[in-house]
Specification:
seven-stranded mixed sheet, 233 residues, alpha/beta
């Protein structure tokens, strides 16, 4: 079926002015050294939704004495992540999706204007917000909960979490109640609208993290979505 996407040229032009469409949909631009005051000099970092490794490399460079555990379940993206980080001894790459349960799961693969919007949740509002991003295919991936991963890899603490999970952020955090007790800061993608079916909305995430002892340090929200830095009181 032919795609009728060219009526949305204005949207595409605006996105390209600020960089790639992927970056417009995903994390905003923030310098990694902004997080330094909130973390030890040797932080253990979990980056979930590492994509092709751009942020992974920046995190590894910012904290050369730390360790970055980078998760990317989609095969083609994982290969690029591994290639991009192969010269960084403080990066560990996992072809896994973090989820609220461990085992084989189906992921909706994004294509078209963005290959960085794949999700374990079925797309909903995303289809209207970004009409040139398609979800024509699914893929079976290996997924794991945060606590199961930490236990299997003898990870005793995680200081910083960088989350780009397309609506699964709260699900993943709630699956890691042991790990979350050690976390000092969380930088998460958030949404005030249901871009994916049954995703957690920003208010729900904010309320839950408040109960876990986190406060909002930095909020970057525009037109209902963005990124928020939570730090422990």
């Amino acid at each position: 079926m032919k795609r009728h996407a060219f009526s949305h040229w204005t949207l595409l032009i605006k996105l390209k002015i600020h960089g790639t469409i992927d970056s417009a949909i995903g994390k905003g631009i923030i310098q990694k050294n902004y997080f330094i005051p909130f973390l030890p000099k040797n932080p253990i970092i979990v980056e979930a939704g590492a994509h092709k490794g751009k942020d992974t490399v920046q995190l590894a460079r910012t904290w050369p004495k730390g360790v970055v555990h980078a998760f990317e379940p989609v095969t083609g993206l994982f290969e690029k992540l591994e290639s991009r980080t192969k010269n960084y001894p403080n990066v560990r790459c996992y072809q896994l999706g973090l989820s609220d349960k461990s085992g084989r799961q189906e992921i909706y693969i994004s294509s078209g204007a963005s290959d960085g919007s794949s999700s374990l949740l079925k797309p909903k509002g995303h289809l209207k917000m970004y009409p040139t991003v398609y979800f024509d295919n699914t893929l079976e991936i290996d997924a794991v909960t945060l606590d199961d991963w930490a236990r299997e890899n003898s990870i005793e603490r995680v200081d910083f979490m960088w989350l780009d999970l397309q609506g699964m952020e709260l699900n993943v955090l709630q699956s890691g109640m042991q790990v979350i007790q050690t976390v000092k800061a969380i930088y998460s993608e958030v949404s005030q609208t249901e871009t994916y079916e049954k995703q957690c909305l920003y208010q729900e995430l904010k309320d839950w993290l408040s109960l876990q002892g986190f406060r909002i340090e930095r909020e970057e929200i525009k037109k209902g979505s963005g990124n928020v830095l939570f730090v422990r009181h």
